[in-house]
Design goal:
Layout: E1 2-3, E2 10-12, E3 17-19, H1 27-34, E4 35-36, E5 41-45, E6 55-61, E7 66-75, H2 89-99, H3 111-117, H4 127-137, E8 141-144, E9 149-152
Parallel strand pairs: 3-7
Antiparallel strand pairs: 1-4, 2-3, 5-6, 6-7, 8-9
Helix pairs in contact: 2-4
Length: about 150
């Protein structure tokens, strides 16, 4: 599995994560614009719209092993904490609830959501990140999906 050159997509084969794709990207767009497979491999997506936590399963389709899963990647859309493919106040609300101990995000099971939430890359998920999401929703900032950091519009 690799990224399409010039797409901005990053396929980290060591950590099995994919990022650098635009919010709202569909499975069809992923296959045609962002990632590519070599040989006799196919992909299956856990959702039709890519969001934080969407899984991409790679299958090897050979005569000996038709449909054998060989890898599973997790998609990260920075700023999209709830996994719907959008960056909005719902995501900021989750961060606030997490910071106030109203919800629990498991460091392993929810690692994609936690990575998506930490927009200032300080290792903490807190109100600073929620504020950045609000600024993104209000078109004051944009998220560079290749780095996970915000920048002025």
């Amino acid at each position: 599995l690799s990224s399409v050159q010039g797409s901005g997509c990053v396929v980290d084969n060591g950590k099995n994560i994919i990022y650098g794709i635009a919010p709202g990207t569909t499975a069809q767009q992923m296959t045609s614009q962002y990632i590519q497979l070599g040989g006799s491999y196919t992909m299956e997506y856990s959702s039709t719209v890519m969001g934080a936590g969407t899984t991409v399963t790679v299958f090897e389709n050979t005569a000996k092993s038709a449909g054998t899963a060989v890898a599973v990647f997790t998609v990260i859309i920075f700023g999209d904490v709830n996994g719907d493919g959008n960056i909005d106040t719902a995501d900021a609300g989750i961060i606030i609830d997490y910071e106030n101990f109203l919800i629990f995000l498991d460091p392993v099971a929810d690692s994609a959501r936690l990575a998506a939430a930490d927009l200032n890359d300080d290792g903490n998920v807190d109100t600073m990140d929620a504020g950045l999401i609000v600024d993104v929703e209000n078109f004051l900032l944009a998220v560079d999906q290749s780095t996970g950091l915000t920048m002025p519009v």
